[in-house]
């Protein structure tokens, strides 16, 4: 038996409940906003994701859409984190800000 | 090989259909079979969560049936096993989002894509959703807990499998297999739980084996890993055996008796090692 196997054997099970809670918080928050139908943001986020998924593998939480009020204007902010395209390449991020009154 | 469509069904909810679908699909893929697991539980998808792909869902089964997306776009390829794909259910509240023709088109396309196994994770109940999940099945795996309501519901489902499927319409017998989950040999021995022999006698279908009540099931579902991929767990050993039996191997059954083993054999038995 290798050292690693012995280590695994004596190791107590890790706290996977925390992993479960983190995963659930992320997915539940997303589904609540999607079903609450507050404006067009969830649909926009979903459609953006579908467009991006045509070209690359993407995780849903890598597409962030938000609206902030800045003075008189509303700012729509879109941030897309692209997965690593090939070994060695760095993560790239696309950030777009649309501003409209 | 020709594509084989398998429905994982039970009637009763909470008996382990989704856990079983995830592990059997991963097990088939591990053996080199090109496999897809389809979640038919429209409105309450969970297979994505159990298989750890919930963050990668872009399209779903309803999108494909309604031709809003292609199968290739909707299927999520597992990051652990390159032969394994997941087709998630949608979260729509529209229960009539799926129909027999639409599901049939999806199954035909999966055959064209040369899948070896298509595993259909049925919703609980015996209504339309459960009937759609079983309609195109070549074989069925009925998941049962050693508990009165579960066994009775499994019997109802066996009736449906013999009446409401395409095979039944063609006058061909459905091949159904029994998988007993959450089994405790100790409790059965003490007379607190139905014995496997009793369940087999009542349902009378071929037996794939028992999955013992196991801490590893929750431990792995917490993390989005099919339990069969936790190689030192008792549940993984049991699911792997079940797959071998499904593929025709004749194996002695494990986890059925409470035989006392020596200290060393217990120490080195897979059922006692708990690797994370």
Features:
heterodimer; A: 101 residues; alpha+beta; three-stranded antiparallel beta sheet; 3 helices; B: 276 residues; alpha/beta; eight-stranded mixed beta sheet; 38% helix
Question: How would you briefly describe this protein structure?
Answer:
The complex is a heterodimer of chains A (101) and B (276). With 101 residues, chain A is of the alpha+beta class.
Mind sketching the topology for me?
The complex is a heterodimer of chains A (101) and B (276).
Chain A: H1 3-10, H2 16-36, H3 41-55, E1 63-70, E2 73-82, E3 92-100
Antiparallel strand pairs in A: 1-2, 2-3
Chain B: E1 4-9, H1 17-30, E2 35-39, H2 47-50, H3 61-65, H4 71-74, E3 76-77, E4 84-87, H5 100-112, E5 117-121, H6 128-135, E6 139-144, H7 148-161, H8 166-169, E7 175-183, H9 185-189, H10 196-203, E8 207-212, H11 215-221, H12 234-246, H13 263-267
Parallel strand pairs in B: 1-5, 1-6, 2-4, 2-5, 6-7, 7-8
Antiparallel strand pairs in B: 3-4
Helix pairs in contact in B: 1-12
Structure description:
The complex is a heterodimer of chains A (about 100) and B (about 280). Chain A is α+β, with helices and mostly antiparallel strands and about 100 residues long. Chain A contains 3 helices and 3 strands. Chain A has helices at about 5-10, 15-35, 40-55; strands at about 65-70, 75-80, 90-100. Chain A has a 3-stranded antiparallel sheet with strand order 1-2-3, with helices on one face. The longest helix of chain A is centred in the N-terminal third of the chain and has 21 residues, at about 15-35. Chain A starts with a helix and ends with a strand. In chain A, about 5% of the residues are buried. With about 280 residues, chain B is of the alpha/beta class. Chain B has helices at about 15-30, 45-50, 60-65, 70-75, 100-110, 130-135, 150-160, 165-170, 185-190, 195-205, 215-220, 235-245, 265; strands at about 5-10, 35-40, 75, 85, 115-120, 140-145, 175-185, 205-210. In chain B, strands 3-4-2-5-1-6-7-8 form an 8-stranded mixed sheet, with helices on both faces. Chain B contains 13 helices and 8 strands. Chain B is globular and about 55 Å long. In chain B, α1 packs across α12. The interface between A and B is medium-sized, with 24 and 23 residues.
